[in-house]
Inverse folding.
């Protein structure tokens, strides 16, 4: 029997239903879930009737006129979830980048799914940042994976792409906000150094988690720079507009960067298709679960090992509670 997975609601999005299918496959003994499993799980929740009423309002055909409205709506919900799964395969760059194999009516986790960045992101979104084992910071791991994705998206180290992880607490760079800004400007070759302000000593990272850029051999100013923010928690929507790259450089650097940095936003969730346009207007270049998994597929062994450690701990904990 699979470990317990929270029964989904029929009123939830296709993205949530697709998450449920992936989670059930990971927790099932045979690593498999099916659209039939989803429909069976939806019926006992008592929400199918709500969807039927909402969906038939204003239509010529009402729920009472349907021979079996519940079954019809369940099939529609399952079909929408299946379409979302197909979209994920494409968004992850094809089957090689997606840790599940899709059949006509089922989802099968691949043997190496436990070492997948995608699965780590899925579990992070579903179980939260505190679900991992002691001594492993899921937030830091997410920032490291986001940094790999940003670096690769800009062209990767083979093309000279540079990365600076600025987020607080700083683990690799200088401690302290002003020294970190100084070092960032020195590496970037732009910005002129940190600007001292009355409240600078109280700053942590001013919402900036990572900086990535692609330099030219002439080392002159004027290049593509990305300022990224990572949001691993369920409150990620509240953070979409927090980072303002131009305001950051104007407030905390002695010289304005000639070319405004591009905003990058990273979250481990799968953003609903109908909410994507408005989300992007707020966030800048949006890296959701699939985009991160696509561009972080080349993460090093140390990062992948931490993903596996988190994944196995979370799944084992679920089995213990089942």
């Amino acid at each position: 029997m699979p470990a317990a997975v929270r029964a989904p609601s029929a009123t939830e999005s296709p993205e949530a239903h697709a998450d449920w299918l992936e989670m059930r496959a990971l927790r099932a003994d045979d690593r498999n879930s099916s659209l039939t499993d989803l429909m069976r799980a939806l019926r006992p929740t008592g929400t199918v009737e709500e969807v039927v009423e909402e969906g038939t309002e204003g239509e010529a055909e009402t729920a009472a006129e349907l021979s079996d409205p519940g079954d019809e709506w369940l099939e529609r919900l399952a079909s929408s979830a299946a379409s979302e799964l197909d979209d994920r395969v494409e968004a992850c760059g094809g089957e090689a980048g997606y840790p599940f194999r899709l059949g006509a009516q089922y989802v099968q986790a691949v043997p190496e799914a436990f070492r997948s960045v995608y699965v780590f992101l899925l579990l992070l979104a579903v179980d939260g940042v505190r679900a991992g084992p002691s001594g492993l910071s899921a937030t830091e791991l997410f920032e490291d994976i986001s940094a790999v994705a940003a670096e690769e998206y800009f062209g990767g180290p083979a093309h000279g792409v540079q990365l600076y992880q600025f987020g607080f607490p700083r683990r690799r760079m200088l401690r302290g906000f002003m020294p970190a800004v100084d070092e960032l400007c020195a590496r970037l070759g732009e910005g002129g150094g940190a600007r001292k302000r009355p409240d600078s000593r109280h700053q942590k990272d001013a919402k900036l988690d990572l900086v990535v850029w692609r330099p030219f051999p002439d080392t002159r100013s004027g290049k593509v720079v990305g300022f990224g923010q990572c949001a691993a928690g369920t409150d990620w929507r509240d953070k979409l507009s927090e980072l303002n790259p131009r305001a950051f450089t104007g407030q905390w650097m002695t010289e304005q960067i000639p070319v405004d940095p591009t905003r990058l936003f990273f979250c481990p969730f799968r953003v609903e298709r109908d909410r994507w346009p408005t989300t992007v207007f707020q966030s800048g270049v949006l890296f959701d679960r699939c985009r991160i998994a696509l561009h972080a597929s080349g993460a090093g062994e140390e990062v992948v090992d931490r993903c596996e450690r988190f994944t196995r701990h979370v799944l084992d904990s679920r089995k213990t509670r089942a």
Observations:
- Residues 48-67 have pLDDT under 50 and may be disordered.
- The chain has two domains: 14-133+310-321, 138-299.
